[in-house]
Write a structure and sequence with these properties.
The structure is a single chain. The chain has helices at about 15-30, 40-45, 80-90, 105-115, 140-160, 175-185, 200-210, 230-240, 260-275, 295-300, 310-320, and strands spanning about 5-10, 35, 50, 95-100, 120-125, 165-170, 190, 215-220, 245, 285-290, 290-295. It is of the alpha/beta class. It has two domains: about 5-140 and about 255-300, Rossmann fold, CATH 3.40.50; about 140-255, Rossmann fold. A hairpin with a 2-residue loop joins strand 10 (about 285-290) and strand 11. The mean pLDDT is about 95. It binds adenosine-5'-diphosphate and 6-O-phosphono-beta-D-fructofuranose. The site of adenosine-5'-diphosphate has 19 residues, from helix 4.
C-alpha cells in the first residue's frame, strides 16, 4: 500500500493543524496509509513516526501551533543525518513525505529527495510570508489579524495620551507582516528591511503631524530592521518626541487560524495529496490569484523575493 508521512517543521504557524487534518483525511480517503512524525526532521531521525487515522486529527482544525510539534533541527543539514531519516522511512515502506513548513524546511525536503530519492511535497507554512513563489503562506493572515487586535488596543492609549508608539513585529528578513499591519492598522510609518529609511525625516514628519493635528503617531517596524532603541533615541533627539516601544514578539505566532488560513490550509493539503496521487515528485504547493498550484521545489526555492511596491506606496499615501 502507498504510504505518506507528514511533518510540521520550522516555526509553528496557525493553519499547520488544519493542513495536517486535511492531508490525513484526504489521503486516507484516497487509499493511502498515513503517518505523522513528531518535531519536524528530528522525529524522522529518531524514528518517532506513528500511524495516524481520521480520529487522530479530530478537534484540531481551529487550533494554532502544531499537534505534531515542531523543532529547529540544524543537524539535518548533515547528509549522514538525512540518511538516518531516509532509512527510518524505508524501514516503514514510506515513499512520500509531506513537509508543512517554511523555506528552511523545504530545503530539508529537497535534500531528502535529491540525496535519497524520497518523493516530497511542501506546503508553505510560516507567519513570515517570505516565500516568493506563492502569494501567501499559512499563518500570515492570522498573524496580521493578531497584530491588528493589539494595534486597536494600543490606539486607545495613544489617542487618550496623544502618544507616539513604535511596535515591532516578527518576519525574519521579510517586511510583509509589518507592511500589511501598517496598512490595515493605519500606522503613520512602516519600516521594513526591504526599503531604506531616514530617521531624521521620520522625526521631522512626526513633528509636522503633531502641528497639523495628528496628535498620536504609530511606527510599525519589522524584526529585520536595525536597533529599535537606537531609532527611538534618535527620534527623541531630533524632535523631542517620546516614543514608547512595544515588541509583539511570539504573541503573533500563535492563535486560532482565521477563515482565510483554514481555507488555504485545506485547499493546499488537498492539492498536496493529489500531487502524490498523480505520482509527481519534488513539488511545493502555492496560491497565485486565488488559484492553488504546484511547482518544482528547486524552481520555487530559487525565486527571488520582491517587495510589493504598490502596497508600500499605498501605505505611505494613506499615512498622511
Ligand atoms: P522554516 O522552515 O520556518 O524556514 P528553519 O529555517 O528553522 O524554519 O528550517 C526548519 C528546519 O529545516 C531546520 O531546523 C532543519 O532541520 C531543516 N533545514 C533547513 N535548512 C536546511 C538545509 N539546507 N538542508 C537540510 N535541512 C535543512
Ligand atoms: O519564521 C517564524 C519566526 O517567528 C520569525 O518571524 C522569527 O524570526 C523566528 O521565527 C523566531 O524563531 P524562534 O521562535 O526559534 O526564536
Amino acid at each position: 500500500m502507498n504510504k505518506i508521512a507528514i511533518i510540521t517543521s520550522g516555526g509553528d504557524a496557525p493553519g499547520m493543524n488544519a493542513a495536517l487534518r486535511a492531508c490525513v483525511r484526504y489521503a486516507i480517503d484516497s487509499g493511502f496509509e498515513v503517518y505523522g512524525s513528531e518535531r519536524g526532521y528530528a522525529g524522522l531521525v529518531d524514528g518517532s513516526i506513528v500511524k495516524l487515522d481520521s480520529r487522530s486529527v479530530s478537534n484540531i482544525l481551529h487550533r494554532g501551533g502544531t499537534v505534531l510539534k515542531t523543532a529547529r533541527c540544524p543537524e539535518f543539514k548533515n547528509v549522514e543525518v538525512q540518511k538516518i531519516a531516509a532509512e527510518n522511512l524505508r524501514k516503514l515502506g514510506i515513499e512520500n513525505v509531506i513537509v508543512i513548513g517554511g523555506d528552511g524546511s523545504f530545503n530539508g525536503a529537497k535534500a531528502l529527495s535529491d540525496n535519497f530519492g524520497i518523493s516530497v511535497v511542501g506546503i508553505p507554512a510560516t507567519i513570515d510570508n517570505d516565500l516568493a513563489y506563492t502569494d501567501y503562506t499559512l499563518g500570515f493572515d492570522t498573524a496580521v489579524n493578531t497584530c491588528l487586535v493589539a494595534i486597536n488596543n494600543l490606539r486607545d492609549t495613544m489617542g487618550s495620551h496623544d502618544r507616539a508608539f513604535m511596535l515591532e513585529v516578527m518576519g525574519r528578513n521579510c517586511g510583509d507582516i509589518a507592511l500589511y499591519a501598517s496598512i490595515c492598522g493605519g500606522a503613520e510609518f512602516c519600516l521594513i528591511p526591504e526599503v531604506p529609511y531616514d530617521i531624521e525625516q521620520i522625526a521631522l514628519t512626526m513633528k509636522e503631524n503633531i502641528k497639523n493635528g495628528k496628535a498620536s503617531n504609530m511606527i510599525i517596524v519589522a524584526e529585520g530592521v536595525a536597533d529599535k532603541n537606537e531609532i527611538a533615541a534618535k527620534i527623541k533627539n531630533i524632535s523631542g518626541i517620546d516614543v514608547k516601544f512595544t515588541n509583539f514578539g511570539h504573541i503573533i505566532r500563535g492563535g486560532s487560524p482565521t477563515m482565510a488560513d483554514r481555507m488555504l490550509a485545506t485547499r493546499m493539503a488537498v492539492r498536496a495529496v493529489e500531487v502524490i496521487k498523480e505520482k509527481k515528485t519534488n513539488r511545493v504547493i502555492g496560491i497565485k490569484d486565488n488559484q492553488i498550484f504546484d511547482a518544482n521545489i528547486t524552481d520555487a526555492l530559487s525565486m527571488p523575493r520582491k517587495l510589493n511596491e504598490e502596497l508600500y506606496r499605498v501605505a505611505g499615501i494613506l499615512a498622511k
